[in-house]
Structures are given as structure tokens and as C-alpha cells.
Amino acid sequence: MIVVIGGGPAGRLGAIHLAQAGKDVRLVEQRSIGGQCLHERCMTICALNDVARLIECARTQKDLGILDSVPTVSYPAIRKQLSEVQNKLSSVLDAETRRAGVEIVYGAEGRLEGNRVFIGDEEVRADAVLAATGSRPAIPDIPGTDLSGVHTYRTLPTMADLPRRMAVIGGGVVAAEFAHIFHAFGVEVDIIARHGLLRDLDEKMRSAALRDLAGVGIREGTPVTSIEGGGRVRSVILAGGEEIEADAVLLATGLVPNSEMLQGPAKRPDGAVIVDRRMRTSVPGVYAAGDVIGPPFLTPAARREGVVAAENILGRETVMDYEGIPQGMSLRYDYAFAATAGGDGGITLSAPAPAGPGSFWDVAGGWAGLAQIRVDPGSGRLLGAAAAVPGASLLLSYIGYLMKQGITVDDFDEIVEVHPSTDGVYGLARYAAGLLKKKNE
């Protein structure tokens, strides 16, 4: 028997892969199948952002005189309906996983003690183990994080209604996504970033994101010294003494691997389980995948890691390749980007994206998004691509794969794209091909 600990993207995909290969697989999940992606992070952001975008589109069209009003949000109704849809999706994943031949054990903790495997208090014999125990929110060492009204992405569903003012502590993608959502809902939002906001983004993509965050207060290079309140949050105190009023605080300060139940495999100081490119830990027969092994903390990467682990358990030597895996962010538009290994070189071209579904009426305000590519001037190979448009996440999934296969800008001459579309990558690639031809003539 093979034991899989954790039913998130890495564990579930790994378990299905093993079961479909004829193995006896037992998946242990303490809560509901689907992991944080379904229940607290990705799908929650999708659900809330759908509503936020609807409000923003309505606001744009009201300003143009097309609509006569902008809808208001019932946050309690969102919470109720979101939970119902998530439960439905979890039921679908449960049925799909069982159909593949996986036995699922709910409500028990899977754990390791060296090479011994336990499900709850029962030790079980396992030919191999796939540990996919995920991660949890990192709580910064700031006084007041235990006050009522201070949330992480995990506890947001318990927020009874929309606050009047919210402080979002953090400078990454999750901080930007939730700030955008709650601002669209009518909440006064301040982002407080210890360093810079979205500082890992290309500068043009970052500037595009800041357009979507217009109206959100942004404080960068500003540590928080404390969260104040008499039992319930009242304000946030910044270094230097500035006080920001807030009746809710969202901690978007990163992730910590859940590995306390995995004793035996070597770990990094932050608790991340150390694996090689075949997802093998330091304990023979024990594999790990997903957030428990640390960054990049991406669902597509976790899924692939789970499959790579399963392949190696089956004796099929397979290595994990992170090249070309796209990343995304959901604001007013989708933001997505992918790059090849060594993709920092080359020349970068960018241009406004063409108007299309989801952005036509935004042209009146002078903005329809951004497209960007990075090209090797010698070979014409596409090294990187990014887009800030409706549908960018879907586009970059395929562009990332094509880059990995070595696509050149010349190859885009033979691609016939869907129209109308907001994709500006095709046009930029063709433009780059023309520039390179002229240069080489």
C-alpha cells in the first residue's frame, strides 16, 4: 500500500496517478479534499474577484451613462454562497478521486516517525509515502495579531460583514489581490508593505497593477510595530509612530510549510522538507510535494510535483522541471507571466493590449491592459512573456509551454489567433520578428 498524506493539489494528483497505475493507495486528509487552493486561497479569490470585477465594470459603465446604478455587495450572502459552491466542488473532487481507485480517510492525521507511518494512532505498513501536507499562513511577530478582527486568508470566511476600513499587511500578490477586492466592495483599504509592493514584478507590469489598485492607500518600506485595540482591532501603528485607523486587519505575510507531523525527513530552517528533483526526501521510500517543500507555492507546480513523485514511486525516473511554469495575479485584469531558464537576457518589448472582451469600455478611460515579451535577438527565441488583460492566465499557460519547447517569434506567423481577443502577445511577437529580419538583412 502507498500512503498519501494530504488531499490538496499535490497529494490528490499524486494519489490518482498511483491508483490509475494499479497501486493500492490510501489518502489521509484531516479536513476536506481540495486543500487550501479550493477552500481558502485560489477559489476564494476567484469568487470574490468575480464580484469585484462586476462592480468595477458597472461603475465604469455608469460613469459613461450606460447604466443608471452600481450594485452593492451583501458580504454575508457571498460567504454563504461561496461555502456552498466550495462544498459542491469538494464533493466532485472526492468522487473523481474515489473513481480513480483511491481510498480516502477523512478526519485523521497522517504522520511520520522516521520510516514509520501512522494514520491517527494506528501504525500502518506502507511501501512508500507521499507527504503533501501543505502550508499555513505565516503570522508576523507583531503585538496584537491575536486581537479580534485580525484575519488571515484562512479566517476571512468568519468575518461577519464588510468593515469600514481595512489594513492589509504584506507586499505580495495575495496582499494586492485582497486589497483590490475589498476596495471594490467599498471598503477603505490601506496596504502596508515592509519592503516594496509587488517588488518582484517587472516595472511595467507593476505599474499596470498599481493602476488597478488606484484608490488603495499604499505605504511601502514601512514596518508595522503593533496592532492596537481593546479586545478588538482599532488601529495599526507604523514605524515612526503613524497610526492608521482600521476595524479589520488582513495578514498577507507569506506561508509556512506544515511539516511538524513529518519527523525524519531533513528540513530547512523554515520547516520545508528537503527533496531532490525526483521529490525524494532523505528517508528512503518517503517523497514530498507541494507547499510542504517550500516555494514557489503554486498550485500548478504542486500538481506536477505530485505526479513526479508518483512516477518515481512507480519506478519511472522523472525529474521536476520548473521552467516555463506560469504565475498569475487577479486584480481588475488578470496578470500572468512566464519565463524560460536564463530568460533574464534578451530584449524586452511591450505595448498596450488590444481592446476586447472585458476591456472594451475601459478604452474610454485610456487603458485596455498591457502585453510584454522578451526575445533573444540572435535566435529569435521567446524567453519570456507577460500580460495584464482579461484572460491573461489562460494565454500564458500555453505560451509558457511553447517557450519551453523553443518557440521563436518567427513561428507566430503561422498562428491564427481568435478574434476579438485581448491578447497582445501575438502582435508583439510578429512585430519582433519583423524587427529582427530587418536587422539581419
From TrEMBL:
Keywords: FAD, Flavoprotein. Residues 2-306 form the FAD/NAD(P)-binding domain. One of its GO terms (molecular function) is flavin adenine dinucleotide binding. It holds the Pfam family Pyr_redox_2. Transmembrane segments: none annotated. It comes from the Archaea. This is NAD(P)/FAD-dependent oxidoreductase.
